[in-house]
Design goal:
This protein is about 30% helix and about 25% strand. It is of the alpha/beta class. The protein has 3 domains: about 200 residues, FAD/NAD(P)-binding domain; about 110 residues, 3-Layer(bba) Sandwich (FAD/NAD(P)-binding domain), CATH 3.50.50; about 100 residues, Enolase-like, domain 1 (2-Layer Sandwich). Strands 1, 2, 3, 4, 5, 6 and 16 form a 7-stranded mixed beta sheet that branches. A hairpin with a 5-residue loop joins strand 20 and strand 21.
């Protein structure tokens, strides 16, 4: 049978675009479909626009600190509309770049949501498309609550398009990385921010000490965190703000905007996976093997839709590995070990490798080196901000198995140290490395004594 395409990709986000471009470079006839905008969550309504807004929100703190460095007469006013619209323009520019990348690679774009009719046939809008092989790269979507009044809440998708002016009171429900990042943005831009979480601290799943450090830092920065609280109903005033948030404990909280960031779900609903034998888990994520192959012989999946490690660079890696393996005669599996990540909260957090809890469970004897100190920039301002750093070392091999940081530029520092962890560097090699002075990064190569066991980290002398 003659197919329209050798490969058809469903979803033009980071993973799908990389897979389609690399496959086309191997001489394969490739098509791709997208039902929103080419670029995916990261480019259109995720990492990129969010970090630009983080930058914008940080200026408020910079203006405050500037006086200690001799600057005076600073009385700035912020325009939410200007920031929002400028970020939107940058997203438009990036969307154009992604469209051009597909065109230049010879990949044919079909706009519309793909839906399987059978294992070799896809319906995209009013088109019927056939392909020998398919790659599912539809990403994820925000999970919203099933409670009365849910229609009055927004998700991170809508957070980039809030009407001007920015509401004075904003409640963020959730304690994951998206929640704490947007809480920091809104707080920096002048809104009174509450975070509502079901548990005792934010950022479940990260290193416990880092979680605690971030949680306490957010509170010191003016964000109110309502712990062990669950919203059961949202009540609007004549269908609009202010809103009353009714909690399970009987408390009523009033706010001008409520944003839910309680998790994301694989974007698999309505694409016909049940017709082609593609198995999904109880949350709807596509089940794949180590080669990103689904339970259907001619269908693969990469990125957040598989719910492995939901990060843009991971989706890109998986997409590239798929193309190399299937069409480039260079079989390789995506390596999910020691993937670095960052949370652009304020203060910033980043890590690579094992948490202390994971290391103790998997490795047994470990040595932990930790330090808390005041950043040099804060010595003149008198600010309370602190930086926290942590190395986790396997006692038997001296290998550095985890590196964690909370503080300014954490992501930039951890990206470099991720190379060392990936390469299997030892603590002795860290110790033998000369630091750059004066920097925060030199602390990672000057921590000599492990903390006493057992017991929590103690702040190092400033």
């Amino acid at each position: 049978m003659a197919y329209d395409y050798e490969l058809f990709v469903i979803g033009a986000g980071s993973g799908g675009v990389r897979a389609s471009r690399m496959s086309a470079a191997y001489g394969v006839k490739v098509g791709i479909c997208e039902d929103f905008r080419v670029g995916g969550t990261c480019v259109i309504r995720g990492c990129v626009p969010k970090k630009l807004m983080v930058y914008g929100s940080k200026y408020a703190h910079a203006f405050e600190e500037a006086e200690a460095y001799g600057w005076s007469g600073l009385a700035p006013k912020h325009s939410w509309a200007t920031l929002r619209d400028n970020v939107g323009k940058e997203v438009d520019r990036l969307n154009g770049i992604y469209l051009r990348l597909l065109k230049d690679a010879g990949v044919t774009l079909h706009m519309g949501r793909g839906r399987f009719m059978d294992r070799h046939t896809l319906e995209v809008g009013k088109e019927t498309i056939t392909a020998e092989k398919f790659l599912i790269a539809t990403g994820g979507r925000p999970e919203m609550p099933d409670i009365p009044g849910k229609e009055f809440a927004i998700s991170s998708n809508e957070a980039f398009h809030i009407d001007d002016p920015l509401p004075k009171r904003i409640t963020v429900v959730g304690g994951g990385y998206i929640a704490v990042e947007f809480a920091g943005i809104f707080n920096g831009l002048g809104s009174k921010v509450d975070i509502v979480i079901r548990r005792d601290r934010v950022l479940r799943g990260f290193d416990e000490e880092c979680r605690t450090f971030v949680h306490e830092s957010l509170e010191k920065g003016g964000i109110r965190i309502r712990k062990e609280t669950e919203i059961v109903r949202i009540e609007a005033t004549d269908g609009k703000a202010p809103y009353k948030l009714h909690t399970k404990g009987g408390e009523v909280l009033e706010t001008d905007l409520v944003m839910y960031a309680t998790g994301r779900l694989a974007n698999t609903a309505g694409i016909g996976l049940e017709k082609v034998g593609v198995q999904v888990d109880k949350k709807g994520a596509v089940a794949v093997d180590e080669w990103s192959k689904t339970t259907a012989a001619n269908i693969w999946a990469v990125g957040d839709v598989t719910d492995r490690i939901n990060l843009t660079p991971v989706a890109i890696m998986e997409g590239h590995c798929f193309a190399d393996t299937e069409f480039g005669k260079k079989p390789r599996k995506a390596d999910h070990r020691d993937v670095p990540s960052a949370v652009f909260c304020q203060p910033e957090m980043a890590n690579v490798g094992l948490t202390e809890e994971e290391a103790r469970q998997r490795l047994g004897a470990v040595k932990v080196f930790a330090s808390t100190f005041r950043p040099m920039k804060q010595t003149l301002t008198g600010g309370e901000q602190r930086t926290f750093m942590k190395l986790i070392v396997e006692a038997a091999t001296d290998k550095v198995m985890g590196v964690h940081m909370v503080g300014d530029d954490a992501a930039e520092l951890i990206q470099g140290l991720a190379v060392a962890v990936k390469a299997g560097a030892t603590k002795a090699q860290f110790d033998a490395t000369v630091g750059i002075h004066p920097t925060a990064g030199e602390e990672f190569v000057t921590m000599r004594a492990p903390r006493p066991e057992p017991g929590p980290v103690k702040a190092a002398a400033e």
